[in-house]
Amino acid sequence: xxxxxxxxxxxxxxxxxxxxxxxxxxxxxxxxxxxxxxxxxxxxxxxxxxxxxxxxxxxxxxxxxxxxxxxxxxxxxxxxxxxxxxxxxxxxxxxxxxxxxxxxxxxxxxxxxxxxxxxxxxxxxxxxxxxxxxxxxxxxxxxxxxxxxxxxxxxxxxxxxxxxxxxxxxxxxxxxxxxxxxxxxxxxxxxxxxxxxxxxxxxxxxxxxxxxxxxxxxxxxxxxxxxxxxxxxxxxxxxxxxxxxxxxxxxxxxxxxxxxxxxxxxxxxxxxxxxxxxxxxxxxxxxxxxxxxxxxxxxxxxxxxxxxxxxxxxxxxxxxxxxxxxxxxxxxxxxxxxxxxxxxxxxxxxxxxxxxxxxxxxxxxxxxxxxxxxxxxxxxxxxxxxxxxxxxxxxxxxxxxxxxxxxxxxxxxxxxxxxxxxxxxxxxxxxxxxxxxxxxxxxxxxxxx
Length: 449
Ligand code: SAM
Ligand code: SF4
Hints:
Elements: E1 2-8, H1 12-25, E2 30-32, E3 41-46, H2 53-73, E4 79-83, H3 84-90, H4 93-97, E5 103-105, H5 113-123, E6 127-129, H6 137-141, E7 151-155, E8 157-158, H7 169-172, E9 177-178, H8 181-193, E10 198-202, E11 210-213, E12 216-219, H9 220-228, E13 235-239, H10 248-256, E14 263-265, H11 273-278, H12 285-298, E15 303-310, H13 317-330, E16 334-339, H14 357-380, E17 386-394, E18 400-404, E19 410-414, E20 423-431, E21 435-440
Parallel strand pairs: 1-2, 1-3, 3-4, 4-5, 5-6, 7-10, 10-13, 14-15, 15-16, 19-21
Antiparallel strand pairs: 8-9, 11-12, 17-18, 17-20, 18-19, 20-21
The site of S-adenosylmethionine has 18 residues, from strand 15.
C-alpha cells in the first residue's frame, strides 16, 4: 500500500474534490494518511479565492520539499501534486518556482491523477494540466463513489457564468455546468446505501441547476423533491445559492419537503445597492429582502446565513452602514465576512477608489461584532428548548456524541446507547457561540433522561 496525504484548502467543493481524489487513487493501491512526512504522494488541493492564496501554497511547499529531499536520500520517492484553483491560475509557474513539484492539475482534470502519477513514476517527468477538457471528469469519477459520511457532499453543479466583479471562480472553475439528473440520483443512492443520512448538494451556484431529462426540465426544486423520496434520506441541504436564482418553485419546495433543513446560506455580499451594482451581483437589497420574507412566510422556523465583503472599491461610510442596517433587518444565525481582496484579472481589481487596508480592517471588525452578537443571540434562543440532532462523531469525553442541529450548530450530548447516524431529540441545557450542549429526551414520556 502506498500512502496518500491530501491537504484541502477553501470551500466544500474542494472537500468533495479531495474525497473524489482519494476514491480515484484507492483502487491503485493508495491508502489515506494524515502525516505528510511518511507519504508517497502529497496533494495540496488549493483555493484561490483571496489574496496570498498562492503565497500560502509556496510556503507549504517550502516545508514539504526538505522532507522530500530527506526521504530521497534514504531512497524513498515522494511525489508532490498541486491541485485545485491555485494550480489552475498559476499553471507551470508553480514548477518554475518550486521544481520539486511533480504535477500541477486544475479542478477539471484531476480525474486523470492515476494516469499522471503512473506516468511520472515511470519517467520522472513533470505534468501540468490546466485544461477544461471536452470529456467530462464526472464520467470517470462516477465509477468510484466510495466515501460516505453520515453527512455527505454531492456535487451537482460546477463553475459560474455570473462574473461578479470581485471573483476568480469563473476563471478558475470554468463556466456553469449541471450534472445529469440520473447520475446525481445514482450517486445519492450509493451514498445512502453506504450510510449517509444527510446529503448536501453542492455547486458554486447550486440553485442555478438546470438539466433536461425525460422530456422534463429539471431545476433544483424538482431535484430536491426527487431526492427526498429516496430510501434512507433524513436530511437535505444545498449550497451555495445565488439570490438571483432563488425562484418561486425553490422557495415553495422549502414549505413542501420536511427533509429540507430550515437553514439557508444566501450570500448578499453588501447591503448597499450601488456597491451591489458595481459588484455585478444582478439584484438589489429589496429583491434579497423579498426572498427572505417569502421564505419566512412559507417556513417560519427558517434561519439564514450569508457572506459579506467589506471595503469593495468605492464603499463609502454610508454604503457600509447600509450593510449594517441590512444585517440588523435579517438577523442572521451565522455569517462569513471578508475584507475585499484584489484579484488579478477581475474587474474589481482595476476599479477606482480602492479602500485602504486600515478602513477595511475597522469595518470588518464592526461587522463581525454585530454578526457575532446575532449568532450568540440565535444560539441562546434554543436554551431549554428542543432540537433534533444528527449524531456525526464521538465527542472528546467517553460516552459523548457530537452532531449537527438543523441550523448546523454543533451540539454535544452524553449517551452511550445512541450511535453515529442516529437522529435524536435533545433539550438544550447550555449554549455558546460555537457549540451547544443537550440532554437526550426520552421518546416515550418526553422527559429528559
Ligand atoms: N457563488 C457564491 C455566491 O455568489 O455567493 C460564492 C462563492 S465564493 C467561492 C465564496 C465567498 O468568497 C463569496 O461569497 C465572497 O464573499 C468571498 N469572496 C470571493 N471573492 C472575494 C474577494 N475577491 N475578496 C474577498 N472575498 C471574496
Ligand atoms: Fe463568484 Fe459571483 Fe460566481 Fe459566486 S456568483 S462564484 S461570487 S462569480
